[in-house]
Amino acid sequence: MKALIARKVGMTSTISDDGVVSAVTLLSFSDHTVLAHKTEEKDGYTAVQVGTETSKRLPKSVAGHVKAAKVMPKIIREFRMSSIPEELSVGTSIQAADVFSVGDHVSVTGTTKGKGWAGTIRRHNFHRGRKTHGGNSYRRPGSIGSMYPQHIFKGTRMAGRLGHDRVTVKGLKVALIDPELKVIGVTGAVPGPKKALVIIREAK
To answer: Which of 38, 120, 162, 173 is geometrically suited to a Cys-Cys bond with 126, CB 3.0 to 4.6 A?
Structure first.
């Protein structure tokens, strides 16, 4: 299972032996525990369900579901696999050093920062209207349709909510792993604010 659940800590930079400075995003992780298996015969697909972090209290349905693993996870996610290896039995603990190593190519999925309501200039990079010769349409979106067919086409770029989208950043590389501090560093930027939940997967 080449995947991890982590939280964004922040950004820093590293200097290689040849003097190249690289931006690095630090991600903190907790030990993962295998909670359940999903099989083709029973569920219609093959996956491993893992949990991480610790919750003080769980709903009865969730507590019964994770009883076999003997943990109280705060976050539960599934990762699809072609087949489930024997070492990933229910209750097995997984650490970042067991999954990734320095130099691995990964992709990171997270939710971008929400910017709230935004106009077309900020949201879609529209041009500003002229401020001379009597122009009074500085930041207006302009025409959104013609006389025919008497309705606005679906997908027309207009003002609306900006950000808070699920985004996957590809082409990143594992720069460092610290098992003691439980921190993994990847080159480049990762979507989301600090403490945001992200999923690190092996690049395909």
So the answer is: 120
